[in-house]
Design a protein that fits this description.
CATH class of the largest domain: Alpha Beta
CATH superfamily of the largest domain: Periplasmic binding protein-like II
Helix content: 40-55%
Radius of gyration: 31 Å
Low-confidence stretches: 301-308
Order of helices and strands: HHHEEHEHEHEEEHEHEHEHEEHE
Shape: rod-shaped
Strand content: 15-25%
Structural class: alpha/beta
Mean pLDDT: 88
Number of strands: 13
Length: 308
Amino acid sequence: MIDVRRLQVLSALAEHHTVAATAEALGVTPSAVSQQLTALARETEVPLVERSGRRFVLTGAGRVLLERARVIFAELERAQADLARYAEGSLGAVRVGSFATGISNLVTPAVAGLRRTHPGWRFSVVQAEPEHSTELLRTGGIDVAVTMSSPHLPATGTPGFQFHPVMVEPLDVVLPYEHPLATKEELDLAADLSDADWIMSGPGTVWFDTVAAACHQAGFHPRNAHVVTDFSAAFALVTAGLGVAMVPRLAWHGTATSHMVVRSVRNGPRRHVLAATRSGADPEPLLTAMRQAASRITVPSGRFILSA
């Protein structure tokens, strides 16, 4: 491996032609210059300089090497400039992992906005569910994990991780447009929905566990009439009048599905959406941008209708 510092000595010698002048230009002793040139010739295994009277000139091999060295010097200068920009916050590269609805409503608008306000930053987005994102973060597969409060989240204070709140997200009930409860502005789980046909995911998933826990706290066990794995399938069943579903607000926000209404739940469940990073990492400017996106999430009021 050729030492870059020795290439710099070779470049200075090509400009100043004597060991003494080269040493003065570099702020080192003539002996140090001679030692570096000798070591460089040993590394390359070819003669790089030759004496011409009292001066030194580059051999053909030396000129070839110096041409390459100038490219290396330019790249090093660019690298130093990029590091300085990174240190001042105008340059960065971030790999973001998030669950699907977090990508749609938090990560995408945040990254789109940062492309305008922070053009020197590059973002790469990967879909990663909470049960996988922490491991990807730990192993370096991603730099920021947009995740949620769940059994998969490491405990607060776990070495190697730090957590940053993004939003507190309510779960809302989606109903068929013609459902008798569609006229109510707010629903009570026990009074209104204990006898409903529910559309949920399977046991052991975050969605199921959250909804089931809320229903149990209200004093009943939900009748899981239909089991689905994604929210679009749940919305199709609701639209067809086959049941009701309680979904995170990010799941329906921005959805263009007709014949459904959304109702908030009195004292209903909430989940915390978090940005996780490795200890010592700075989640900015992405964290602030996602919080701004979260602040624009619509709150259901009145007879809110999802329609195309």
